[in-house]
Amino acid sequence: MVKEIERAGFPVVHMCTIIPISQTVGANRIVPTIAIPHPFGDPTKSPEEEKALRRALVEKGLKALQTEITEQTVFND
Amino acid sequence: MTYRVVHYINQFFAGIGGEEQAGQKPLLKEGIVGPGQALAAEFGDKATIVATVVCGDGYFAENMDEATETIIGLIASCKADAVIAGPAFNAGRYGTACGAVCTAVKDRLAIPALTAMYPENPGVDLFRKETIIVETADSARGLRKAVPPMASILLKLLEGRELGLPAEEGYLPQGLRKNLFRAEPGAERAASMLVKKLRGEPFETEYPMPVFDRVPPAPALKDLKGARIALVTSGGIVPKGNPDHIEASSASRYGEYDISGVSDLTSADYATAHGGYDPTYADGDADRVLPVDVLREMEREGIFAKLHDLFYTTVGNGTPVAMAARFGREIAVKLREAAVDAVILTST
After folding, report:
1. Distance from C-alpha of B170 to C-alpha of B92, rounded to nearest angstrom
2. What is the mean pLDDT of residues B146-159?
3. More confident site: B210 or B190
4. Given the DSSP bridges, would you call strands B255-258 and B82-85 parallel, antiparallel or unpaired?
5. Partner of A17 at 20 to 30 A CA spacing, among B110, B144, B242, B315?
6. Cβ–Cβ of A10/B344 closer than 8 Å?
7. What pLDDT score was predicted for residue B26?
8. Which residues pair with B49 in a beta bridge?
9. Nearest to B8 by CA among B63, B77, B88
């Protein structure tokens, strides 16, 4: 899905936990997330902390979308 | 002589446990464990499985260098003549581990090694050039069929006999080219191939084109403040009750749902349809998979112009690549009609 949407000309950020799968599939902008069952959350934290964590991840995703790249890039920080 | 073979398997096939035991560090077990039985039967008296090395798939994936080092040490301590790994079928981390172990064995111990997996296993693309990979079905149901070619190819490698073509022997092509003489010259073969093609008959190319399935990165988003952002997910987030009946695995459809006016995905209204991962956390708060709450917040703050009113969702569990590609193409058309500027795609 990532690739076909990008092929149509949209910048896509793939936010996921299993980075090697995303790389093999061929996503170009990849942002690693927290865990498979809760990529944008951490149930061990309070709802406020969890939301802050989620917001930071989404901000990272938006930054990746605004970053010009020439090849597959994993945005680690 | 009877060759000494070491078998590499994961925690699951060793009977240690499933995902909860994936952190298992490498360990050596004497003799045959699990699928080694079938291999041993096939070897007969020509080779013996002297030991089995077991490593958790999670541990290997997270500590590749260290795990490889330890495993090579364990194999070397067995005075092995060859190593056989798997079969890994369609298990991605297991396939990657098998490929990495075989490659390291070949490079560092200079003895034959081979593994076996399903052609779509990510381990195939990573290691097919370095190691022989026997083709298998996508699940352990294919064990019986996988074993004879694994054993016969390993024995050939041990005895220094030449391997036939991949299709004859049952392994995946390694991208090697060999010179050989044919009775008919190239021009005749090409002409007869063309005739078959024109007639719509099946023919076999002598030079398959490589498939470079890569898409160049789209240009970056220039104007975030004025941008319309859309959400797409393979994490299976759906309105509670899964109105379009998206399958828990091998999805044949995707959903399009309206979130205009929704500022938080609550457990009362949203859940996941995805099988294969523990749904507790996604069902408890679907924002953990599809971050609508924070995107809505950022939209209000004017960080970007608009969160697209519709989100697209499917289940990425065992969904065939061709199916996912079709969803992607269809979704892209809709996103274009809606003048979306950029996409956040989330996966579990």
Report:
1. 20
2. 96
3. B190
4. unpaired
5. B242
6. no
7. 97
8. B5
9. B88
Whether B158 and B273 share a structural domain:
no
Residue B208 has pLDDT above 80, yes or no: no
Give the per-residue pLDDT at B232. Answer: 98
Which residue is it, tokens 């892209």?
A: B332
- Asked whether the beta carbons of residue A7 and residue B332 sit closer than 8 angstroms, the reply is yes
How large is the average pLDDT for residues A33-54? 95
B259 and B164 assigned to the same domain? no
Residue range(s) defining the domain that contains residue A24: 2-74
Total domain count for chain A?
Answer: 1
The residue of chain B nearest to residue A51, with distances taken between CA atoms, is B294
- Asked if residue B163 and residue B70 are part of one domain, the reply reads yes
Residues B140, B270, single domain; the answer is no
Q: Under an 8 A CB cutoff, do B92 and A20 touch?
A: yes
Residue pLDDT, tens place only, B173-203: 998 877 888 999 999 999 999 999 999 999 9
Q: What is the DSSP string of B174-195?
A: -S-------SS-HHHHHHHHHH
Question: Domain for residue B129, yes or no?
Answer: yes
Q: For the domain that residue B55 is a member of, what is the CATH number? A: 3.40.50.280
A6: nearest CA in chain B?
B218
What is the structure's pLDDT at B229?
98
**Which pLDDT score is estimated for B134?**
97
Contact criterion met (CB < 8 Å) for B335 and A5: yes
Residues of chain A with C-beta less than 8 angstroms from the C-beta of B128: none
Mean pLDDT of chain B: 94
- Clarify whether residues B164 and B236 are in a common domain: no
Provide the 10 A C-beta neighbour count for residue B121: 30
- Asked if the Cβ–Cβ distance from A37 to B285 is below 8 Å, we say no
In a domain, B199, yes or no: no
Chain B: give the shortest CA distance to residue A76, in Å: 16
Range of the domain at B39: 3-169
Residue B189 domain flag: no
Residues B273 and B160 in one domain: no
Q: For residues B66 and B132, what is the distance between their CA atoms, to the nearest angstrom?
A: 23
Is residue B202 assigned to a domain?
no
Number of compact structural domains in chain B = 2
Q: Which DSSP symbol is given to B90?
A: T
Minimal CA separation from A75 to chain B, in Å: 14
What is the mean predicted confidence (pLDDT) over B132-155?
96
pLDDT band of residue B322 (cuts 50, 70, 90) is: confident
